[in-house]
Amino acid sequence: MKHSKKYLSFREKIDRRKRYPLADAVKILKENKFAKFDETVEVSVRLGVDPKHADQMVRGTVALPNGTGKTVRVAVFAQGDKAAEATAAGADFVGAEDLAEKIKGGWTDFDVAVATPDMMRILGQLGKILGPRGLMPNPKTGTVTMDITRAVKELRGGRIEFRIDRQSNIAVRVGKISFGEAQLVENVHAFMDAIMRAKPASAKGTYVLSASICTTMSPGVKLDFSELSAALKK
């Protein structure tokens, strides 16, 4: 892949053998920003677990204290009072069979779906559509719940879901480059704390093998996990 001169210039300023303290890495990203738009900041983590084994899957949710900087479109599957509750909480789309039929027709113009438990009979028909897109509600991530108000507000306020992929990596957005340095550091700390709390009991050896941070257009900056870990313990 051919990179721009600005990207290559940025990369030359990074010591690729070094692992940077989080605050220093964030400062590097902000000081060397060259894109004309407000880039997303992303953290990637490689874990020492084998996702092929069910007892070593790593997934969960975390509410980022400063949000992600992105407007999250929430679809809620609910009826009656719960549907009214979803609307009042700020859900973008609310429905039941009608919403399911719309999705069967090819519409998936939302970022996350929430459902009350009784709606799973409807959602079962949408697994092949929502599953591959990561949009299927799941009790483990708090998106199948009777507390619709809390779920919708947390999701719109900055709650994100993370899940390990087949290569044992997890990558999530933790804000925008326009955020203050302290806001980005705080969000990364919240995410890494959630990763540590999600450590499987069956995991052996080193849990976090590596971590890095980047923006939409930048190269990755390796993070010093020992420094990160110490910060999380404070």
From TrEMBL:
Q: Does the keyword 4Fe-4S apply?
A: no
Q: Which GO terms describe its biological process?
A: regulation of translation; translation
Q: Does the keyword Ribonucleoprotein apply?
A: yes
Q: InterPro entries from the xrefs? A: Ribosom_uL1_bac-type, Ribosomal_uL1, Ribosomal_uL1-like, Ribosomal_uL1/biogenesis, Ribosomal_uL1_3-a/b-sand, Ribosomal_uL1_CS
GO CC terms of this entry: large ribosomal subunit
A GO molecular function annotation here is: structural constituent of ribosome
Q: Which domain of life is it from?
A: Bacteria
* UniProt keywords, alphabetically: Repressor, Ribonucleoprotein, Ribosomal protein, RNA-binding, rRNA-binding, Translation regulation, tRNA-binding
Q: Matching SUPFAM superfamilies, A to Z?
A: Ribosomal protein L1
Q: Which PROSITE patterns match?
A: RIBOSOMAL_L1
Write down the CDD domains for this protein, in alphabetical order. Answer: Ribosomal_L1
Q: Which HAMAP family match?
A: Ribosomal_uL1_B
Described purpose of this protein according to its UniProt entry: Binds directly to 23S rRNA. The L1 stalk is quite mobile in the ribosome, and is involved in E site tRNA release.
**Complex formation:** Part of the 50S ribosomal subunit.
> What family is it from?
Belongs to the universal ribosomal protein uL1 family.
Q: What is this protein called?
A: Large ribosomal subunit protein uL1
